[in-house]
Amino acid sequence: MVPAHRALKVGKEGKESEMHIERHKTNQRLSQAVVYNGIAWFSGQVGSDPDADVAEQTRQVLAKIDELLKLVGSSREYLLGANVWLADISSFDAMNAVWEAWVPEGKAPMRATVESKLAAPHWKVEIAAWASVP
Questions:
Q1: pTM
Q2: What one-character DSSP code corresponds to residue 89?
Q3: CATH number for domain 2-132, candidates 3.40.109.10, 3.30.1330.40, 3.30.2310.20, 3.90.180.10
């Protein structure tokens, strides 16, 4: 984890207050997780096995999100939302079957799913998510 970033901001009444931003797994390009004001945002996660089908890559992605949730002190129950990008929208049902098994019953976050060309041809699914940090 990169040390938390602290900066001053001026509120409506002209009073200064301190902002607290935590960045996790950070490099020059991006942070895998950023926490601010009780909300954690996770960068887009992709599968690690380029030969896996969309269901297996979805499992890999969701495992990475589980790790990030744990890293920031949260869990699936606190997911607020997710964006899902599929390289081929015809794989929607296969991805959804894995997603639905992973999301706790009654705790589904808001979600958007679209077809999109991903950054590398072997990636079949990418998911970015955000959650509250209790």
A1: 0.87
A2: G
A3: 3.30.1330.40
d(CA 37, CA 121): 36
Query: Tens-digit pLDDT profile for the chain (134 aa)?
Result: 444 555 545 556 666 566 799 999 999 999 999 999 999 999 999 999 999 999 999 999 999 999 999 999 999 999 999 999 999 999 999 999 999 999 999 999 999 999 999 999 999 999 999 999 99
Query: Under 8 Å CB-to-CB from 125, ≥6 apart: which residues?
Result: 46, 47, 54, 57, 58, 61, 84, 85, 86, 87, 91, 95
